[in-house]
C-alpha cells in the first residue's frame, strides 16, 4: 500500500480551505509523517493541492532536500526572515516569513492541528490568513492505516524488542533466591539492573526508549509504575518494553509477566484468565469489527470470572482498569483505540496492541501484550515471543 493522503485533500475541500499547515519540531509525528523529515528545531510543513512544501532553517535545508518527501523545500531566508526579525521582532518576524511562504503557494486559508501555536495563529490571522482548527486529527487518522513499509518498520522494532525481553528474562532465570529476594552475581537483582540490560540490548539493536516498566509486587498493580528496587521471589514481575527504532522512528510494544519462585494460587489463576482474555480479543480482531467490540470480548471473560472492569464499575481501582489496546507507529500511543470509546471499525493496516491485565496491590499485576496488524481476512500477530509465567 502506498501512502494515501486523499483523506487530507478531502478534509481541506470539506473545510473550504486551501491547505494544511503544521509548525512544530521533529517530535511532532503528524509533521514527520507529512514531511518525511524531522529536525530538532521548529520548521513548517504545508500540504496544498496534493503536494507538500517545507520551510526550514538554512541549517536544515540540505538535509531536508535529500531526506524529506516534500515536493519543494524553502529556507526562512528566502522570505526575508532576518529583515523581518529586524523590523517586527523575533516572534512576529517568523510569522511574517510564514505569511510570505503561504502567499507564494497561493494559500489564503489553512487548516491547522488542534495543538497549533496560538501566537502563530493570531499572527497569521493579523496578516489576513483564515484559519480552521482541525479538532478531528485528520493526519492522525491517515497515519493509523499503515503501509507495507510501515508495517515492516514496526516488525523490525518488534524483533529488537523481543531480544530485549529475552535478555531481561535471562537475568530473572539466572537469579537465585535468598530470603525471598532475587540475587545475581553476588548482588541483589533490582528493577534498575533489569532495565539497564533492556536498554543496552536495544541500543545494540538500533533502538532506544525513554522509559520502560520492570515492576514487581504491589508496584506491578499500578499499570504505569516503572518499578524500582529489589525484585522479590513469588511475586509478579511485569515487564513492558516499548522501544523506537532510531532509523525508522517507528515503535514496538510488548509486555510479559513473570514469577521467579512459587506464585500464589490467585496470581496463577489471574494469569490464566488474562491469557484467556487476550485470546478472546485476538479471535475478535478482523476488518469491520470496532475497537469497542474487541474490548468487550475481554470484559466478558474477566466479568465471567468474577473480576471488576470499568464496564461494570467506572470507579474500581482493582481488576481490569485500562483499555485493551491502542494503535502504534510513529507514536507509542495512537489511533485506533480498543476501548469502550473505540467506536471506529478496524481496517487492514491498523497496527494495534492487545494487552489485557488484572491489578490489585494485594496480589500484584498481570499483563500480557502482543502486537498485531489487521489484515484483509483477520490479523497477523507480529509478536514472536513465548508466554511463560513461572521461571525456574
> For the report, how would you describe the main beta sheet?
6 strands, mixed
Straight-line distance between termini: 45 Å
Q: How is the CATH topology of the largest domain named? A: Creatine Amidinohydrolase
Radius of gyration: 24 Å
State the assembly state of the protein chains: single chain
The CATH superfamily of the largest domain is identified as Creatinase/methionine aminopeptidase superfamily
Shape: elongated
Looking across the biggest beta sheet, what order are the strands in? Answer: 4-3-2-1-5-6
Structural class: alpha+beta
Do you know the CATH architecture of the largest domain?
Answer: Alpha-Beta Complex
Indicate the CATH class of the largest domain.
Alpha Beta
Mean pLDDT: 95
Task: Tell me how many strands there are.
Answer: 22
Poorly predicted regions are: none
Strand residue percentage: 15-25%
Count up the domains.
2
Number of helices: 11
Considering DSSP H and I runs of 4 or more, what fraction of the residues is helical? 25-40%
In short:
By secondary structure, the protein is α+β, with helices and mostly antiparallel strands.
Can you describe what's shown?
This protein has 392 residues and is an alpha+beta fold. The protein has two domains: 6-143, 3-Layer(aba) Sandwich (Creatine Amidinohydrolase, Chain A, domain 1), CATH 3.40.350; 145-391, Creatinase/methionine aminopeptidase superfamily (Creatine Amidinohydrolase, Alpha-Beta Complex), CATH 3.90.230. The chain is 36% helix and 24% strand. The protein is built from eleven helices and 22 strands. The chain has helices at residues 6-15, 29-35, 58-67, 81-88, 90-104, 118-126, 138-144, 148-174, 191-204, 265-284, 291-304, and strands at 19-24, 43-48, 51-56, 72-75, 109-113, 130-134, 176-178, 181-184, 187-188, 207-208, 213-216, 236-241, 244-245, 254-260, 325-327, 334-338, 351-354, 357-360, 364-367, 370-375, 378-381, 390-391. The strands form seven sheets. It has a six-stranded mixed beta sheet with strand order 4-3-2-1-5-6, sandwiched between helices. It has a four-stranded mixed beta sheet with strand order 11-12-14-22, covered by helices on one side. A three-stranded antiparallel beta sheet has the order 7-8-9, with helices on one face. A hairpin with a 2-residue loop joins strand 8 (181-184) and strand 9. Helix 8 crosses helix 9 and helix 10 (265-284) packs antiparallel against helix 11. The mean pLDDT is 95.
Amino acid at each position: 500500500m502506498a501512502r494515501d493522503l486523499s483523506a487530507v485533500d478531502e478534509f481541506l475541500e470539506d473545510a473550504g480551505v486551501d491547505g494544511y499547515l503544521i509548525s512544530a519540531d521533529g517530535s511532532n509525528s503528524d509533521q514527520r509523517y507529512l514531511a518525511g523529515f524531522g529536525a530538532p528545531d521548529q520548521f513548517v510543513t504545508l500540504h496544498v493541492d496534493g503536494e507538500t512544501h517545507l520551510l526550514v532553517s538554512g541549517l536544515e535545508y540540505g538535509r531536508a532536500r535529500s531526506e524529506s518527501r516534500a515536493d519543494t523545500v524553502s529556507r526562512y531566508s528566502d522570505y526575508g526572515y532576518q529583515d523581518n526579525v529586524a523590523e517586527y521582532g523575533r516572534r512576529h518576524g517568523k510569522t511574517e516569513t510564514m505569511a510570505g511562504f503561504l502567499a507564494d503557494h497561493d494559500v489564503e486559508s489553512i487548516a491547522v492541528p488542534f495543538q497549533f501555536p496560538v501566537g502563530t495563529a493570531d499572527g497569521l490571522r493579523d496578516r489576513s490568513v483564515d484559519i480552521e482548527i482541525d479538532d478531528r486529527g485528520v493526519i492522525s487518522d491517515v497515519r493509523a492505516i499503515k503501509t507495507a513499509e510501515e508495517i515492516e518498520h514496526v516488525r523490525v522494532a518488534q524483533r529488537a524488542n523481543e531480544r530485549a525481553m529475552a535478555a531481561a528474562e535471562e537475568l530473572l532465570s539466572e537469579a537465585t533466591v535468598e530470603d525471598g529476594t532475587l540475587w545475581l552475581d553476588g548482588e541483589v537483582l533490582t528493577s534498575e539492573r533489569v532495565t539497564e540490560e533492556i536498554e543496552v540490548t536495544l541500543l545494540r539493536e538500533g533502538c532506544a526508549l525513554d522509559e520502560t516498566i520492570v515492576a514487581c509486587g504491589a508496584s506491578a498493580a499500578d499499570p504505569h509504575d516503572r518499578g524500582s528496587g529489589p525484585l522479590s521471589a513469588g511475586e509478579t514481575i511485569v515487564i513492558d518494553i516499548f522501544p523506537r527504532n532510531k532509523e525508522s522512528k517507528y515503535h514496538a510494544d510488548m509486555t510479559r509477566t513473570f514469577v521467579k519462585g512459587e506464585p500464589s494460587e490467585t496470581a496463577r489463576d489471574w494469569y490464566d484468565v488474562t491469557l484467556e482474555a487476550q485470546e478472546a480479543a485476538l479471535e475478535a480482531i478482523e476488518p469491520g469489527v470496532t475497537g469497542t467490540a474487541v474490548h468487550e470480548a475481554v470484559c466478558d471473560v474477566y466479568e465471567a470470572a468474577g473480576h471488576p472492569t470499568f464496564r461494570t464499575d467506572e470507579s474500581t481501582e482493582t481488576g481490569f482498569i485500562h483499555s485493551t489496546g491502542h494503535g502504534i507507529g510513529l507514536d507509542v500511543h495512537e489511533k485506533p483505540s480498543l476501548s469502550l470509546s473505540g467506536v471506529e471499525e478496524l481496517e487492514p493496516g491498523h497496527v494495534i496492541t492487545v494487552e489485557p491485565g488484572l491489578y490489585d496491590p494485594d496480589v500484584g499485576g498481570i499483563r500480557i501484550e502482543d502486537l498485531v496488524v489487521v489484515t484483509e481476512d483477520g490479523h497477523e500477530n507480529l509478536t514472536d515471543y513465548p508466554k511463560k509465567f513461572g521461571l525456574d
